[in-house]
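Ticket #4471: structure output looks truncated?

Reporter: J.K.
Steps to reproduce: submitted the chain below (231 residues) through the standard prediction queue, then opened the result file.
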Amino acid sequence: MRQHWIMVVGFAVVAGCAVAGDEESTDGVQTSEVSSKIIYDYVSPTAPGSQGFGTLALRRANAKPGTFNPTYGAATLPKIKLASDALVTQAELDAVLAIPYAGHENSVVALFGGRTTGSIFSDPTFEVVEIYTPNQPVSITSVAQKDALYQLAPSGSQVTVRLINEKDYAASSAPLSADYSATPNPTAARVAVQGGAYFTGSVTISCHKVLWWTNCDPPSGVHVTAYFEAN
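Returned output as attached by the reporter:
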């Protein structure tokens, strides 16, 4: 298993939520502050004969349909290929491509980090840079539009709660009061999440605004449904 965890570039880093009083963030919030470099998508196999370019369906992590954009987060079937700067091998990508639809009809089988290339004049292609696999079977319905995808990223005296493809919440380091009871192995979940693994679920952050200054407390709750770890 690879032990590298890279920092996601291109995210907007904020000190908190610019609202009066306290705020608790427990779900993904659609925003335009997305990464221009690495984008993360949930991956699931497609049925034989599905119309599209690839054998995998990709759904952008945390993408939620809205009134003015009802297809945001809908499954796409792009061509899949390894990026020139990939952190995984072709064999690792092939292993995901080979996962059959039978037995995985409603499951997320991986998390891809990469880039979408192409234009309106050419077929869409997703270039894979990173691959993460779930610690347990994950239902498409439990992650695609419901649970948010997060990462806790400790760095020195700071803890950043990263809402993947969206934005970061930075807070001072402090012991976390975490609830991992939703996972089959709470100890493994604690190690994985605090070590930087991506996870589905929610976090609780309280923010306080005084005049123009907003300060956010360390996350007081981390509720894990499933986590993804590097191949």
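Triage note (M.O.): checked the attachment and the full token line is present. The first strand starts at residue 12 and ends at 14.
Status: closed, working as intended.
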